[in-house]
Fold this protein.
Amino acid sequence: MGACFSTRAKVLSSSREGSGNSSSDTSPKKRSSKSSNNPGSFAAKRMLSLPAASDRTSPTLRAFSFADLKAATRNFRSESLLGEGGFGCVYKGFINEQTYLPARPRQGMPVAVKKLNLDGLQGHKEWLTEVHFLGALHHPNLVKLIGFCAEDDHRLLVYEFMQRGSLENHLFRKGTHYQTVSWADRLKIAIDAARGLAFLHDAEQPVIYRDFKASNILLDSYYNAKLSDFGLAKDGPTGENTHVSTRVMGTQGYAAPEYVATGHLTAKNDVYSFGVVLLEILTGLKAFDKSRPLAQQSLVEWTKPYLSDRNRVLLIVDKRIQGQYSQREVQRAADIAQCCLCPDAKYRPTMRDVLRSLETVLFSDDLSMNGDGNTERESSNRQHNSGT
């Protein structure tokens, strides 16, 4: 496709991971990893890797008792359940904003409490990774980690509560509970998410998110977006290393092809995943859906012919937001997605470049006049309606 913007890459090493050498920009600074390689039981390893003052976690993180979190969520009752996944279940709870003690519903500060499934070492490692990263990284577009519980066999995390839940729910779930996200809000969400990723990639010790998808983008009441779930995040490569060799993990449809093929992890893997989510934002369709016809199951493959075709790109835009965008806006967003999805990682843009490009879409004059005296938005809507 050619170079869309510019290049850069970064990443960590742990017991089953190693650094690699390729040809890309690097960062000379390095941070130590706290994972243990000693053999033994899950309990023994867990005892060796609990958050401690010597770790890089923030001293402001609150250590909660299990009894307090049980009370805050009303005994983890089903009515408090916000969602569940491979890591465990997330519950809504209430705590006093000053004392952090349990509070009655609607009389305290709402929080989200993630409760680990006690299924072995991998789950604990992901819990510890979240404390490791979110305890040290602070940015308006990263969900705030308030504290944790590491009492006996219990492993929980306490986050700020995001009122509108995940972007995934608003894009793909039907029903009155989930409002259709407007075109303007979709652009804003994409920009917020890009800011979060750019912050991670540009940090003094770069971080690779590794699990960027719509379900991990949470929205507050004003549709401000924040990245959540850092259980698969990794430190970026340092020195002469340009990738990390790691076990392939993630969600089908979002992972970059070179990562799936080789296990080589770089920041450009996150860029690819961002391109997939940008397609979901444009189309309102899931990255991979077996219920669709075979040729359309992979959103990336199905939309390829449309992205660079000025006359056809409007055909793939979510019909629920028809009339809210100009053709120029859609084409520019499609161009950005196409660059992010470039099969050759070295030609993908950096997230900083993606952010700048998205901001030009949001702040562009979408009511500029065209040759026939109509706005671009009016003309594109007529074109969309006619199916051309």
